[in-house]
Amino acid sequence: MNPFVTHYRVVGALLIREMEARFGSKPGGYVWALLDPAAHIILMTLLFQAIARAPALGTNFPLFFATGYLGFQFYQAMVSYVNGAVKSNRTLLSYPNVAPFDAVAARAILQSLTTALVACIVLGVILAYMRVPPTLHWAPILEAATVASILGLGIALINNVMFLKYPLYEQLFTIVNRPMFLISGVFFLPDAIPLPYRDIVLLNPLVHVTMLFRTGFYDGYRAAGLDPVYLYNFAFLTLFLGMTLFTFSSSLLRNE
Amino acid sequence: MIRLEQATKFARTRGIKKPILNEASLVLQRGRSVGLLGRNGAGKSTLLRLIAGTIRLDSGRIIRQGRVSWPLGFQGSFQGSMTGEQNVRFVARIYGVDTRQLIDYVQDFAELGPFFQAPVSSYSSGMKARLAFGLSMGVNFDYYLVDEITAVGDSNFKKKCQEVFRTRLQSSDVIMVSHSTSTILDYCDCGVVLEGGKLTYYDDVQDAIKAHKNNMKGS
């Protein structure tokens, strides 16, 4: 049998299975995928509106947080969902034509589509309620979303192997990854940080993701320090590492 | 036809490296059902998984011509959180079989009643075995890899399995692992004995059983 047809079929079957498991098991289903980020953005808006007069960029609080949060979410949601792809589909790997990578592919596809849909709806609603909606620049928006997803996929591929091999690493990763939300420029602008520290903050590739994502929404945003080449290098190198590790760990993933 | 060429496989646990297959070669012709014999821990189930392709050889190769099933154990390869029906649907999709037809067949065969729509984790081992067996019979394979599955279930179910299996075996072959020699005699024409990493083929299943019994006496 043609291996491409098999993979295509298996990924399709896994995709349906993941959707059933993720959205079919609780009432509300798919709506939760939408409500969760929306609630985050509303909460941040309320909190920061009480503290500050205007957001660091523009005048619209929801737009500022949504652009930061959703750009970041292309990475974060991908990692947290695809991390366990092999682990939670392990019994299905006893079918010879189901490969470990199929489980990863199915979850990655489902997650990027979900995040994209959520971003469209949440940002669409915010833009519709603005008095003077900005002109969107689609190139940087799509660029940021794609690179963030690739980075997330790369890290998730590494984690699929490492979580199984070293359970302690899972704890460590959770500790390191949690503050990413705080230091990735979701609710501050890295440009505003004084210089010796700004360079340190800019080492985090996710800062470049949120900056790049925001340049698509804010015309006058200069994004000082944004380095797309650094971001691309980091993301593709991670993906390459992840794929290599994943390929050479097939016996571990198959639970031999 | 299934052919093993210089197949080598080691079992590794905590630094201990034990050969399961040591440069073993074997040809299984189409049209003959094979009983796989060997002592406990010799690696019969591992050999089945190697033939199925879920695990890989350390060196050598396995050539398969024809559709080979997944190894049918009595636990089944079911995802516990999915219902019986969802599991069946999944298998239909990955093997490209008509979904509706397979569901109807398995539902009828496994006699799970309302449990067919319940998560597999709530099944008893007998129910899982019935689902596993029904499911594999519903997909048309050239080779069925069976790991002790016929040993489960009450006498009624066994009889039913036998009937279905017999009709299947007219056009398909089975490669079977069982500790019960009578089951092997029932289904298999020839036999393979796995001992010390080597595979010995016997054209008559009786000879294979004899050789196996000899091995067991020797230790």
Sheet/helix structural class of chain A: mainly alpha
Query: Averaging pLDDT over every residue of chain B, what do you get?
Result: 87
Number of domains of chain A: 1
Silhouette of chain B: globular
Residue ranges of chain A: pLDDT <50 for 5 or more in a row? none
- By helix and strand content of chain B, what is the structural category? alpha/beta
N-end to C-end Cα span of chain A: 25 Å
What is the name of the CATH class of the domain at 1-67 and 144-153 and 173-219 in chain B? Alpha Beta
How helix-rich are the residues of chain B, as a percent range?
A: 25-40%
**H-E order of chain B:** EEEHEEHHHEHEHEEH
The succession of helices and strands of chain A, N to C, reads: HHHHHHHHHHH
- Strand order, sheet with most strands of chain B: 5-6-7-3-8-9
Largest sheet of chain A: none
How many runs of DSSP E, i.e. beta strands of chain B? 9
| Total of DSSP H or I helical runs spanning 4+ residues of chain B | 7
Whole-number radius of gyration of chain A? 19 Å
- Would you count the extended β strands of chain A for me? 0
Tell me the number of helical segments of chain A per DSSP (H or I, 4 or more residues long): 11
